[in-house]
Amino acid sequence: MNNLENPRENFRNLGVKTLSKGEKKEKIDIKALVSIIPPASSLAREKHRRERRIRVRGVENVKRGFAKINPKLAKTLGIKDKLVVVIARKKKLQLTAILDENISENEVWCNYEQLREEGIADNSIATIRAT
After folding, report:
1. In-domain check, residue 40
2. What is the CATH number of the domain that holds 108?
């Protein structure tokens, strides 16, 4: 007998079980499989904002190489000890962060002389991010 004439016999030889009339196919519970996958909304909450555009103020009482930043803003941006101030994608400063509650969340205070030497005007808008 040719292999094409009896397809049931071919499946048995391959190890595939065919169902007879009395047997029922076992159903897979889809809900159990889907419960393993987290919803998309939970993944979106874990994402932290990496950078933010805020005002850079020049202040005399901040030491060179340091920047005062609000703790809430630092937590939002993931800043622990170092931050980068970028102005117009051209001027870039890497500074050590000092957390201070007295600073507004919309500002970062830096040394006035250092900003002037770098060519950055007081009250400029800059991109702040963690290093």
Report:
1. no
2. 2.40.40.20
Q: Return all residues near 92 (Cβ < 8 A) that are at least 6 apart.
A: 84, 85, 86
The Cα–Cα gap between 59 and 121 comes to: 12
Average pLDDT taken over every residue of the chain: 82
Instruction: Look at the pTM and tell me if it is higher than 0.85.
Output: no
SS3 track for 22-39:
CCCCCCCCHHHHHCCCCC
**Could you say which DSSP state residue 90 is in?**
T
Domain coverage including residue 103: 50-130
Taking only the tens place, the pLDDT of each residue in 31-48 is 777 777 777 777 666 556
Cβ burial, residue 86 (10 Å; 0-12/13-18/19+): middle
Please report whether residue 56 resides in a domain: yes
